[in-house]
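Hi all, posting the design record for the shared folder.

TITLE: backbone redesign
STEP: 1 of 1
STRUCTURE INPUT:
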């Protein structure tokens, strides 16, 4: 799989109650400075960089004005060789997606929209700090289809404190009814420094691991029944509609991130940008030793439901999977956390929900 390009749009109309990502309101001066910075950073792309996937994320890309979106796309076309791009995704908030923005994205080469539905209960959306309504999500999907988008993803959040399994079931059914090509089901994380974290610290939130597990297990079964294959811990897709950019990350591939707070991995070197505007700089740069990179690749690839084929892993990293972590793999398999046979290593069914504890044993 060829390399990927990520563009970070650090703007949101309003920050969600659970979000710890870097973002700020889309004030005109800040947007103009960001766009100039994107153009400058694109000039530093390595020679011969030809992405096969592009992902515009955030933040909220559709928080930009229509003209600013158009200018971003023009800058990308003028500075990046895009003729090999197979999948070009843009994230969208139903509350800021308009016919004009959808048309500009489609005309500019975007062929996949990732729409942040999160819930189909307006009370839950309000609690999460979302700016959109359930009706706007449905309208946004209809708008995307009318604009010609044939590849649409919907994000849904589960495990919201106080939201029972019955409500999550209704969310999944509502998402399925819109017939997107891709559905992501993310467990709500209480991130430090967010409004939800402050509520939790004050004792006003109770997170039930059992309830989260019940929602995860039910969602997996229901989506599989509906025709969305479970291909990564939090992601489900119709055949051939898996997100190429994310598969690139999980497979240890090369990608370059542009913009504040964006991260990159290219030619064995990893770096990240500072989360600041109007100008950002490189926050760190490190060259991973081959064995350390192989261990990281092992863990990332185990996020995929099929896990790693042993021959595939050797071809990707140059390391034999057992020589790298054979003792730990054997122990985790004995404990029922991994399934390891002559050809493949993958997470066991019971380990999918607690994958982080398994990964910590392997890094």
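Okay, here is what came back for every position:
SEQUENCE:
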């Amino acid at each position: 799989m060829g390399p990927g390009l990520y563009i970070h749009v650090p703007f949101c109309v309003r920050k969600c109650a659970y979000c710890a990502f870097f973002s700020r309101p889309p004030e005109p001066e800040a947007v103009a400075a960001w766009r100039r910075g994107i153009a400058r950073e694109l000039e530093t792309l390595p020679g011969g960089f030809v992405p096969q996937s592009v992902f515009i994320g955030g933040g909220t890309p559709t928080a930009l004005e229509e003209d600013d979106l158009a200018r971003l796309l023009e800058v990308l076309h003028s500075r990046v060789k895009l003729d090999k791009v197979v999948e070009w995704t843009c994230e969208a908030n139903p509350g800021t997606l308009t016919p004009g923005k959808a048309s500009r994205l489609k005309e500019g080469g975007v062929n996949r929209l990732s729409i942040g539905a999160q819930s189909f209960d307006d009370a839950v959306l309000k609690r999460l700090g979302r700016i959109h309504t359930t009706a706007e999500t449905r309208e946004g999907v209809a708008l995307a289809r009318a604009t010609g988008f044939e590849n649409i993803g919907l994000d849904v959040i589960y495990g919201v404190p106080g939201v029972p399994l019955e409500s999550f079931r209704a969310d999944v059914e509502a998402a399925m009814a819109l017939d997107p090509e891709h559905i992501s089901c993310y467990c709500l994380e209480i991130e430090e420094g967010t409004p939800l974290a402050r509520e939790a610290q004050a004792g006003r939130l109770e997170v039930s691991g059992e309830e989260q597990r019940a929602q995860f297990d039910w969602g997996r079964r229901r989506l599989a029944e509906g025709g969305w294959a479970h291909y990564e811990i939090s992601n489900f897709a119709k055949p051939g509609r898996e997100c190429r950019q994310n598969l690139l990350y999980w497979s240890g591939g090369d990608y370059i991130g542009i913009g504040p707070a964006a991260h990159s991995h290219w030619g064995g070197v990893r770096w990240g940008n500072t989360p600041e505007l109007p100008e950002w700089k490189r926050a760190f740069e490190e060259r991973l030793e081959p064995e350390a990179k192989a261990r990281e690749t092992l863990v990332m690839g185990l996020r995929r439901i099929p896990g790693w084929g042993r021959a595939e892993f050797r071809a990707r990293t140059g390391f034999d999977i057992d020589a790298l972590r054979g003792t730990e793999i054997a122990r985790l398999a004995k404990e029922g956390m991994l399934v390891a046979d002559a050809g493949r290593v993958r997470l066991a069914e019971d380990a999918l929900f607690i994958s982080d504890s398994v990964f910590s044993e392997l890094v």
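COMMENT: The mean pLDDT is 94.
Let me know if anyone wants the other runs.
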